[in-house]
């Protein structure tokens, strides 16, 4: 107990000593500060004012910096937002994500000629990155180039037919005369001679119909494919045009494309036919197609601009092919026979379409009358024979 009391007493004495030392230190510090203020009041005030100004300046600068930073951040955020919106806009995003199979997902590219053309257009657009007007024009040129060997073959056939035209005309006149006379033996003879003549020279009139028969389905397939793509519409076609017809899914507001297309058709007619420039056309047929070319403008103005891109490109390729195949050097290189007579002279000597049609109609009516007369004569003979048998 005594030891515990002694320890507690020592702790109390030590605590009193520490308190006295702390009090003396505080008094000394306060006296020193007061003496400094008394000796150098200006320095002290200057230091206080400088500190206050520093605090105010720091606070103002910090607030201004925060405001500027916030404004800069807002501007940057706006710029970034605009850039992101531009990049990820539906049109740009679709263009960037264009890939093979998109047409199939939209219901296109089925197992038909139209679907085949749609798949071709999709592949060209995806792999080349061309705008849609360039894709359509390129596809048109490729298809026409694929048909070029057939066109050359038909050119060769037409040239041979033109060189045989005098002899064929003679046989045709003899055949008509034999038909009018009802001489079946002569009809068979002249028909065989004509077939032998065609076989000998490796040509036939029906071969000239090969190119139009193939080109017609191709033209219809292109029209149906482009119209279906415009009706969806396929992404990118609304901005994939050129010049004033930016939207390929809409009609030309200025009707320039329909007019250019009609002019192209007339230019093809003037240069020559699709089956060959050497084959002269009758005046009646040319006039008929001229009227049709002009009449197509008010009937086709409503079509999408993409369809006219195809038509105009196709007409341009046709004119280029016809003019190229008219060149003597090209014809010689392609083994196309040289014409015995100029095309103009042959065209002048030939009858027009309506003249031939009227002549064929009259001939058909005459044959029908003769057949009816023979039937009546045969019926009269049978009636006389039946009357004789009765008696």
TrEMBL record:
Keyword annotations: Membrane, Mitochondrion, Mitochondrion inner membrane, Transit peptide, Transmembrane, Transmembrane helix
Domain spans labelled Membrane insertase YidC/Oxa/ALB C-terminal: 132-326
Keyword Lipid biosynthesis part of the UniProt annotation: no
GO cellular component: mitochondrial inner membrane
Coiled coil stretches, renumbered: none
Gene Ontology MF: a single term: membrane insertase activity
Signal peptide: none
Any Gene Ontology biological process: protein insertion into mitochondrial inner membrane from matrix
Transmembrane segments: 130-152, 209-230, 254-276, 288-312
InterPro entries with a match to the protein in the record: YidC/ALB3/OXA1/COX18, YidC/Oxa/ALB_C
Pfam families cross-referenced by the UniProt entry: 60KD_IMP
Membrane topology: Multi-pass membrane protein
Compartment(s) of residence: Membrane; Mitochondrion inner membrane
Family assignment from sequence similarity: Belongs to the OXA1/ALB3/YidC family.
Protein name (database record): Membrane insertase YidC/Oxa/ALB C-terminal domain-containing protein
Organism whose genome encodes this protein: Lichtheimia ramosa
Lineage: Eukaryota, Fungi, Fungi incertae sedis, Mucoromycota, Mucoromycotina
């Amino acid at each position: 107990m005594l030891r515990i009391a002694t320890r507690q007493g020592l702790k109390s004495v030590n605590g009193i000593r520490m308190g006295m030392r702390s009090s003396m230190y505080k008094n000394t510090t306060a006296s020193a500060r007061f003496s400094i203020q008394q000796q150098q009041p200006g320095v002290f005030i200057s230091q206080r004012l400088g500190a206050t100004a520093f605090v105010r300046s720091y606070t103002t600068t910090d607030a201004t910096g925060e405001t500027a930073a916030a404004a800069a951040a807002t501007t940057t955020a706006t710029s970034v937002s605009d850039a992101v919106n531009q990049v990820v806009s539906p049109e740009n995003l679709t263009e960037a994500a264009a890939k093979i199979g998109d047409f199939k997902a939209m219901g296109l590219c089925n197992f038909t000629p139209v679907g085949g053309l749609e798949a071709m257009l999709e592949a060209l657009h995806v792999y080349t990155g061309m705008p849609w007007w360039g894709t359509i024009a390129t596809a048109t040129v490729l298809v026409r180039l694929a048909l070029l060997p057939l066109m050359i073959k038909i050119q060769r056939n037409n040239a041979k037919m033109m060189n045989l035209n005098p002899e064929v005309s003679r046989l045709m006149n003899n055949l008509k005369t034999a038909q009018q006379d009802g001489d079946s033996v002569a009809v068979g003879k002249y028909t065989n001679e004509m077939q032998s003549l065609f076989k000998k020279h490796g040509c036939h009139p029906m071969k000239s119909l090969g190119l139009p028969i193939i080109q017609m389905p191709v033209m219809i397939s292109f029209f149906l494919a482009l119209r279906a793509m415009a009706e969806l519409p396929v992404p990118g076609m609304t901005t994939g045009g050129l010049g004033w017809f930016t939207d390929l899914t809409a009609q030309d507001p200025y009707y320039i494309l329909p007019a250019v297309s009609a002019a192209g058709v007339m230019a093809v007619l003037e240069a020559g036919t699709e089956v060959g420039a050497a084959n002269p056309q009758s005046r009646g047929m040319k006039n008929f197609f001229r009227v049709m070319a002009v009449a197509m403008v008010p009937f086709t103005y409503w079509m999408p601009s993409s369809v006219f891109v195809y038509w105009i490109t196709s007409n341009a390729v046709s004119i280029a092919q016809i003019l190229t195949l008219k060149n003597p050097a090209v014809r010689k290189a392609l083994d196309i026979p040289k014409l015995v007579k100029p095309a103009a002279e042959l065209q002048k000597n030939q009858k027009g379409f309506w003249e031939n049609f009227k002549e064929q109609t009259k001939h058909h009516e005459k044959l029908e009358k003769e057949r009816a007369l023979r039937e009546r004569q045969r019926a009269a003979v049978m009636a006389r024979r039946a009357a004789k048998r009765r008696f």
